[in-house]
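Trying the structure run again after the queue cleared.
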Amino acid sequence: MSSDEPLEVGDLVKWYDMYACDTIVKDTGVGLVLRAYMSTDIAMGHLHVQEYAIERLLYDVHCLKLSDIRTFPARDVVAI
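Done. Tokens:
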């Protein structure tokens, strides 16, 4: 469900709200990208010996169906 090219502010997108298992879609809708940014998460390495940073591309999307602003990872937002 992801697109290879980064989205820009104002792009019309289809968003997918996923359950925690990341295999089942809970809800979908259409929205506008309000902000795109990189977020850094800290993850544990092999055998929990070393920490390392993972950067993720996130989008703040105004969800028209929900009348709400939600944050989605890049894999859950597709340009229309």
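The chain has a mean pLDDT of 87. Worth checking whether this holds up in the mutant runs.
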